[in-house]
Amino acid sequence: MKKYLLLLTVILSTVLFVGCQYEDDISEPNYVSLAFKPGGANVGVEIDGSSTYDVKVYSANITNADRQFTVNVDASSTLSSEGYTVPATVTIPGGTNEGVFNVQVSDVNLGVTGKTLQLSLQSEPDLSVGKPFKINVARTCVGKEFVVDFVFDGYASETSWSLTDDTGAVLVEEGGYSDDTPTASKSLCLSPGTYTFTVKDAYGDGLTYPNLGSVTLSYAGNELAVIPGDFGAEASVEVSF
Predict the structure, then answer these.
(1) Cis geometry, peptide bond prior to residue 87 (ω within 30 degrees of 0)
(2) Whole-angstrom distance, CA of residue 236 vs CA of residue 200
(3) Residue 238 forms beta bridges with which residues?
(4) I want to staple 138 with a disulfide (CB 3.0 to 4.6 A). Which of 28, 81, 114, 215 is the partner?
(5) Distance between CA atoms of residues 53 and 140, nearest Å
(6) What is the C-alpha to C-alpha distance for residues 63 and 96, in angstroms, rounded to an integer?
(7) Is the pTM of this model over 0.85?
(8) Segment 35-68, tens digit of pLDDT
(9) Cα 133 to the chain's mean position, in Å?
(10) CA 96, CA 43: separation in Å to the nearest integer?
(11) CA–CA distance, 92 with 68 (Å, rounded to integer)
């Protein structure tokens, strides 16, 4: 009986020793990531203005000391380098797993459709990082939008349009509407100036069948021009504001 008790004691001691040693060998993952948002974050910028956005950073573990990580601007970014200010590093304070850094974006060559800023954290041999974080930057002009309103005839798929500035540069080209689309509206943030709007119909009969449609252009709620549906294959109008 004593032999059995001695054997049981040895087995239990071995199990406890191995278990404690295994727990000591487990370490928390060294992982850090920028906050994730499907599609990225949308930041509006007033014409010729700037905006700020706070990007949050999370780590998988908590340490007593402050930790610093390198912030990179990815080459896939389309926002001009003069249009943003991004800090070189971000710090996660000791005692927490969360940090934050501030990004400033400006209306520098944003154009009508906007640009993107893609950020990432720099990985290291003993550090894993999460996916890049995208910021979509676009002009905002509440109450001062240039608006294009369509009333289609029944064959919206035949309609396309473009907008050019006073130098002839094409700012926007759109089309691809579905035939079951009765109306459509597009709002754009434009600097004051002179623009040419052109609408085309692939069939050549304008917006006339089976219903008579139209195109209305307005700025800041004021009507600038109306193009009747019977424009044939193409019509252009110049507007200023």
Answers:
(1) no
(2) 9
(3) 196
(4) 114
(5) 15
(6) 7
(7) no
(8) 988 999 999 999 999 999 999 999 999 999 999 9
(9) 9
(10) 28
(11) 6
